[in-house]
Amino acid sequence: MTHGQSSSAKAPAAVIDGKAVAAEITDKVAAETGRLIAAGGVAPGLAVVLVGDDAASQVYVGAKGRKAKELGFHSVQHTLPLSTSEAEVLAIVDQLNRDPSIHGILVQLPLPRHIDTSKVIEAIDPAKDVDGFHPINVGRLAIGERDRALVSCTPAGCLLLIQRVLGGNLAGKDALVIGRSNIVGKPMAQLLLQESCTVTVAHSRSRDLPALARKADIIVAAVGRPEMVRGDWVKPGAVIIDVGMNRIPAPERGEGKTRLVGDVAYAEAAAIASAITPVPGGVGPMTIAMLMANTLVAACRAAGQPEPTF
Ligand code: GUN
């Protein structure tokens, strides 16, 4: 404590630099890809399937393809018009399942309404399901067989960020996951349970969310409600992972301007927490990094080579 500071002043929360952690992971993926190829394997192959013309999906898919190429992967993209039938999408998935140069298949969601999402996900070979959405992979995670599963990228990245701050042993920590989506909330809860946390999953029907949050050593917010988690919900010293990406009006920046905020009121929460992810630059970059890690892991398994851990 330096002179002039009150003894009650709390150090500001550490900002968890997801961009830097993601760069470390992709560096390792690139190095391990070189090792796999040197051992006689082939470059990891990632196929991304995009149906329709959703602008956000086009941006995400483009970023995934670029990163894959940057890491020395074999990268293919199937861009299909909105009018594509379910049968045509299933035929492409089937063709990719059979293609030995492809180790990871990602069908970008949401799919157009005339296509049954579950049917498409279940058509993907679980060994190539680098999104971790197939019921086989969801089930393996749920029964504690993470080492044989492929795990959903965003929650896997969130867990790595939590472990960066708190270390590898999370046993006994109280963790609150806000949101119960199949992509983030549910697999996040499973991963934290696997790490022996005491896990609460809250959602839109939960009673007294602030009280649940105040007990939590770890909060993962993934609800899609701008700045919902307030500073006075946060237990002093908690670690906060903000998965939210909400675009809100920012008239202070000029007419019609917007800005990106998370599900957590950042400044308020950072004053109480010990560590917090920013938006953007926190969880976002981790999702693509973990997709690349999953594709490499799938390629190592296909080649019968040892797989790296992340
Ligand atoms: N749409 C939004 N997030 C995701 C994701 O993680 N995977 C896929 N396939 N689609 C998405």
UniProtKB/TrEMBL annotation:
One of its GO terms (biological process) is purine nucleotide biosynthetic process. It holds the Pfam family THF_DHG_CYH_C. It catalyses: (6R)-5,10-methylene-5,6,7,8-tetrahydrofolate + NADP(+) = (6R)-5,10-methenyltetrahydrofolate + NADPH; (6R)-5,10-methenyltetrahydrofolate + H2O = (6R)-10-formyltetrahydrofolate + H(+). Residues 152-301 form the Tetrahydrofolate dehydrogenase/cyclohydrolase NAD(P)-binding domain. Pathway: One-carbon metabolism; tetrahydrofolate interconversion. Residues 16-131 form the Tetrahydrofolate dehydrogenase/cyclohydrolase catalytic domain. It comes from the Bacteria. GO terms for cellular component: cytosol. CDD domains: NAD_bind_m-THF_DH_Cyclohyd. NADP(+) binds at residues 179-181. InterPro entries: Aminoacid_DH-like_N_sf, NAD(P)-bd_dom_sf, THF_DH/CycHdrlase, THF_DH/CycHdrlase_cat_dom, THF_DH/CycHdrlase_CS, THF_DH/CycHdrlase_NAD-bd_dom. Transmembrane segments: none annotated. Keywords: Amino-acid biosynthesis, Histidine biosynthesis, Hydrolase, Methionine biosynthesis, Multifunctional enzyme, NADP, One-carbon metabolism, Oxidoreductase, Purine biosynthesis. Its EC number is 1.5.1.5, 3.5.4.9. One of its GO terms (molecular function) is methenyltetrahydrofolate cyclohydrolase activity. Catalyzes the oxidation of 5,10-methylenetetrahydrofolate to 5,10-methenyltetrahydrofolate and then the hydrolysis of 5,10-methenyltetrahydrofolate to 10-formyltetrahydrofolate. Belongs to the tetrahydrofolate dehydrogenase/cyclohydrolase family. Homodimer. This is Bifunctional protein FolD. It comes from Kaistia nematophila. The gene is folD.
